[in-house]
Specification:
alpha/beta, Lysozyme-like, two-stranded antiparallel ribbon, 7 strands
């Protein structure tokens, strides 16, 4: 396997309210409207916890200015208060939290040197609307990440 050097996983929110169950295709459309070649995140987690692949994991992302070269971008649907898009809110569902635990553990297995960060560590934003440093990402999950590790490794060239 010849993969790019990844030393960070950066967590984002879509800055949508909990009533909006968007997916990677919607975000892909938003990013294309900005003139990008497509979705900037490598993974997207829907409200029901479904993990979707976004940008090819072999490609540099477009999610955090100055940090994309050596990072993986993960985004979850949500992050702002219903009806008030200017107010950050940690409104991850239990399913999203479980999927994020499993995905970060899988990524830690594939990229053992990776550390986990919130977008707000690199930009003047509230994103991802929770403190990533207080999570135990990459070390525990109630669900086995084995199937996800296999799926990710299939995509690595």
């Amino acid at each position: 396997m010849n993969m790019r050097k990844v030393n960070k996983v950066i967590i984002h929110c879509s800055a949508t309210g909990p009533e909006h169950d968007i997916d990677a295709k919607v975000v892909d459309g938003w990013h294309k409207k900005r003139g990008w070649k497509g979705i900037g995140y490598h993974f997207f987690i829907k409200r029901d916890g479904a993990i979707e692949f976004g940008r090819d994991i072999n490609e540099v992302g477009a999610h955090t200015r100055g940090q994309n070269q050596n990072s993986i971008g993960v985004c979850y649907a949500g992050g702002v208060k219903q009806g008030d898009p200017k107010t950050p809110e940690d409104n991850r569902t239990d399913e999203q939290k479980a999927s994020l635990d499993m995905l970060t553990l899988a990524l830690k297995c594939i990229f053992p040197d990776a550390t986990f960060h919130g977008h707000r560590e690199y930009a003047a934003k509230a994103c991802p609307s929770f403190d990533v440093s207080k999570e135990n990402y990459g070390f525990e999950s109630e669900r086995s990440p084995e199937h996800l590790i296999r799926e990710i490794k299939k995509k690595i060239k």
